[in-house]
Design brief:
Length: 266
């Protein structure tokens, strides 16, 4: 599912409905179903076959505008089990872990699949994502969310249930990306399986976790360009002559640590 290409909505597509106050509702278009809100009802059938950006009158006489969600909208609005990596963090992680087309990425845990979708887009059909999740309920939810966004789980995304350490050698990744509580346990594994120049990235919410992962990287002795950072994104309110930062922002999500593998005596 790609937004903004001029393709009309089809059954099964994700659709974001905007009301006049800017409230947004994420729905899956299903033939014969109705969307209900305090602004009245709207038949999905009215949207199916229509282009993105069109507006539709509800039974209350108000209007809703329909667009396909951007990936950032979908990740933040989808129902989920595990906490997703925020789009601001996922975007920065892709850049600083240097993830691009054709690469093989080992990811864990899949969680709700939020980061998996971002990685899948970054590596594209010539790449490969192997995403490992230890909890069956999380893996199953992630599979349905990923299919909900892309239309089906992309061929190049391999969703597995298990322990990430056990998959590492066979996958032979170019990059390892971790959003799990104890990423330091994976540092010796990353040191063993990554190629020279390969990248390791870990996202953790707490300072002691940063200390532990950095200590493990130091101990491994084969990572350079190690860096830990956080991403603060402050939205601005722009209304007429009132132009100022928004009163509210997401104050803290987590810290991203990256490093590159070098070969020492190998
Ligand atoms: C915070 S969630 C990941 C969220 C995900 N990045 C997203 O954007 O949706 C962490 C997940 O890691 C899984 N997990 C923890 N340790 C793991 C391990 N050693 N191998 C595989 N999965 C693991 C947990 O079950 C949980 O679902």
């Amino acid at each position: 599912m790609t937004s903004g290409t001029g393709d009309p909505f089809g059954p099964g597509d994700a659709c974001l409905l905007y009301d006049a106050k800017g409230r947004r509702y994420l729905i899956e278009l299903i033939v014969g179903r109705n969307f209900h809100s305090h602004r009245g009802a709207l038949a999905h059938d009215a949207i199916i076959g229509s282009p993105e950006g069109a507006s539709f009158e509800t039974t209350n006489g108000t209007f809703l505008t329909a667009l396909r969600p951007r990936l950032s909208d979908f990740v933040l609005k989808m129902s989920r089990g595990a906490t997703v990596l925020y789009p601001k963090d996922a975007a920065a992680l892709v850049m600083w872990a240097d993830i691009g087309p054709g690469m093989t990425v080992l990811e864990a845990g899949t969680g709700s699949g939020g980061l998996t979708m971002v990685l899948a887009r970054a590596v594209g059909p010539t790449g490969r994502i192997v995403s490992v999740e230890r909890r069956e309920d999380h893996a199953s939810l992630a599979r349905s969310r990923i299919a909900g966004f892309f239309g089906a789980v992309p061929d190049w995304v391999d969703l597995r249930i298990g322990e990430v350490a056990e998959a590492a050698e066979e996958v032979a990744p170019d990059r390892i990306v971790l959003d799990l509580p104890d990423p330091w346990d994976m540092v010796p594994v990353a040191a063993a399986v990554l190629p020279g120049g390969g990248g390791f990235a870990a996202y953790v919410p707490n300072v002691p976790q940063v200390e532990a992962v950095r200590a493990a990287m130091d101990e491994a002795g084969c990572f350079i360009e190690t860096s830990t950072f956080e991403v603060m994104m402050r939205d601005w309110s722009v209304t007429g002559r009132s132009v100022r930062p928004s009163h509210r922002m997401v104050g803290h999500t987590g810290f991203i640590t990256v490093g590159r593998k070098i070969l020492r005596g190998e």
